Amino acid sequence: MRKQHSPETLPLQGAGGQKEKIGNNELKALGINDVEILVNFSRVANGLLKHNVMAKPEILANLEALIHDPMPYALKKGGKFKNLADDVIALRKEGKFVKQERGNFKLKEEIADFPVWGLENIEVGALAQMRTAVQLPIAVAGALMPDAHQGYGLPIGGVLATTANTIIPFAVGVDIACRMCLSIFDLPAEAIDTETDKLKNILVDNTYFGMGCTTKSYFDSSLFDSKTWGETKLIRSLKDRAYAQLGTSGTGNHFVEWGELTLTEGALDDIPAGKYLALLSHSGSRGFGGAVADYYSRIAMTKTKLPAEAKHLAWLDLDKDEGQEYWIAMNLAGEYASANHHEIHNKIARALGVKPISRIENHHNFAWKEHLADGTEVIVHRKGATPAGEGVLGIIPGSMSTPGFLVRGKGDASSINSASHGAGRAMSRSAAFKTLDKALIAANLVEKRITLMGSDVDEAPMAYKDIHTVMAAQHDLVEVLAKFEPRIVRMADAREKPED
């Protein structure tokens, strides 16, 4: 899917257009102090960075995971980090380069089992991150979805249940409450072909994309009457920014699109089977959620000292002020993200002159208070994962030229009532720019009859996993109710840097 990209895939250009470099101090912070080892790590890391194979945060995240547990990297033939992993294993057999545990909290020595869906298509870095996550002293259960790929702390596509009084900001994600929203109209799907220009113009006139973009007119801004906007100093300081960005979308994989929805018989109450015109959007809590995530993740890493490989999994105590503040801000970000989608959908429906007959939506970067099958109360973090409790409706998109799906959860306990949040990236943004052919991308869009406004090579369908493979891997988690075929797609302009 176009989603879930977090900051590990930001462009490699630094401030002033200078190429980034991974310095020795950054490597030493991972626990690398021996000069010879430092040279080897630096050569590999900066080589990957120079050739745009990975972005800097992704490289450092892999190195953290490798130092903690080199074996998964050593077993991957042809892997970019295999030689480093072999060196670390050999040195430890000699009693050298023994990892020093740092911080107030140690990880569990044993690695708990966790189920993985679609294992054959999940990169080793995501598996290593999930192994670290389930070793947290507060971890109760974990699961990895078939669209998983590496992120900060918890992999994107990762689900982690922690003790009932703990929450991990980075396991919620940088774009708090990033979500999907689907409006179904009682209009024939053929309208996309017969009214193409009208539908395209409606998108242009009623959607706004980009980092920091704002609007000046609102359909319904009543959310800002809520007393919650005065609850904390941080929330108060962000209220004006949130108000200005109400009804806007971000960059990267955020989109608003018209498509053809094919609904199965009996899928939704009072809506007959058939093909309908539908509107699908994907975005989150904009600058408000990003600022909340940044502020409280820093507090968490200050309050909760963990070994280097787990530092982005630092948690807040919900029994303390900072934990309660984050919980309030996170839930407000959820309401705000929902209001953002409603604003977009309501404006478009008004321009269309037709109200939707159904609207379905769900978060996929959030934390919920839930109970496991045995009754244990937990906080469930779904970072790029869709809630899939029994009977729960959700939306799992593909890419700009592949279908998304309206699904009903089956309530699988082993997945912690979760499913994928999309197709998941098959390659990083930098790799997409380096390897994908613009002519082939354009041909693919023509073949699939896609009208595209905005976007760039890094969001090409080829940069994502096969959505059909992902859905097949999780047939025990969700029931497919409808298929959504995108046709008129609007995303941020290519000049916009990804922020999601």
Automatic annotation (TrEMBL):
Instruction: List, in alphabetical order, the GO biological process terms annotated in this UniProt record.
Output: DNA repair; RNA processing; RNA repair
Q: What does the entry list as the binding residues for GMP? A: 253-257, 364-365, 397-400, 421-424
Question: Which first-to-last residue range defines the signal peptide?
Answer: none
Q: Where does Mn(2+) 2 bind?
A: 282, 364
- Can the keyword Endoplasmic reticulum be found in this entry's annotation? no
Q: Does the keyword Protein biosynthesis apply?
A: no
The chemistry this enzyme catalyses reads:
a 3'-end 3'-phospho-ribonucleotide-RNA + a 5'-end dephospho-ribonucleoside-RNA + GTP = a ribonucleotidyl-ribonucleotide-RNA + GMP + diphosphate
Residues annotated as the enzyme's active site:
421 (gmp-histidine intermediate)
Q: Name the needed cofactors.
A: Mn(2+)
Q: Which UniProt keywords apply?
A: GTP-binding, Ligase, Manganese, Metal-binding, Nucleotide-binding, RNA repair
SUPFAM superfamilies per the UniProt record, alphabetical: Hypothetical protein PH1602 (SSF103365)
User: What Pfam families has UniProt attached to this entry?
Assistant: RtcB
Q: Copy out the cofactor comment.
A: Binds 2 manganese ions per subunit.
EC number(s) for this protein?
6.5.1.8
Please state what class of enzyme this protein is.
ligase
Q: Please list the residues that bind Mn(2+) 1.
A: 175, 254
Give GO MF terms, alphabetically: DNA ligase activity; GTP binding; manganese ion binding; RNA ligase (GTP) activity
Q: Which InterPro entries match?
A: RtcB, RtcB-like, RtcB-like_sf
- The protein in question is named 3'-phosphate/5'-hydroxy nucleic acid ligase
Origin organism is Mucilaginibacter yixingensis
